[in-house]
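Predict both folds.
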Amino acid sequence: MPDSSATPDLDLTFLYEIADGSDEFVVESIDMLLQQAPEMLNSIDQALQSADWPTAAAAAHKLKPSMGFFGMLISQGLLQDVELLCKAGGQEPDEIRAKYNQAKELVETNLTALSRIKSEKEAGI
């Protein structure tokens, strides 16, 4: 099992448990996140820039379950905050932006780590 201690917000325990030894499942799961997470982050980013709080909240809500699946609980919590603050009408745009930026940075770091793990797994398939 790869060491994910390089990133404080990545714990693949759950993924490995449900993969039940299938590297192919792990690779496919990671691949899906690598495709979807940047799109979702981009949606949140654009919505925040245009103060479209309902769209930002919906995109944050949609990305949250994936964060839990990959043990990215800090990111998941930050996205939860972004979602709730946006649902409340975006009265604190600076706080929303700060939490989103923190989540985005963590997620992007994790995506890099996941990409590396995916390559290692593919080499073994």
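Second protein follows, with its predicted structure tokens after the sequence.
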Amino acid sequence: MRISVMMAGLNGAVAVGLGAFAAHGLAGTEMDYARGLVEKGAHYQLVHAVALAAIAGLVHQVPDEKFLRLAAYAMLVGILFFCGSLYIIAFSGVTAFGTVAPIGGFSFIIGWLLLAAAGSRRFA
């Protein structure tokens, strides 16, 4: 689960940096759409970075870490596809990348459900 801790730290740092850039570097009415995309991506990335840290902290609390490991991977895939597509659209203007965002959203949902499954196995 060390990878979850590393990914939590890296994703948290990237999310905060991009969020700050969106707030300060994308100011102006012509950049409002791009700023909104970056802020949304940074928000989701930061939330899931915290979830990755929590997953890493839970690894010793569950009898079988398989579901936790899968939850972490699903959240990483979600960050890549959902947040990544928003960042690419914001910085390049290529809106075709929006078609992969639902893959990331679905991965986030799967990650949270796998986390729930890990918890249910702990208390079963």
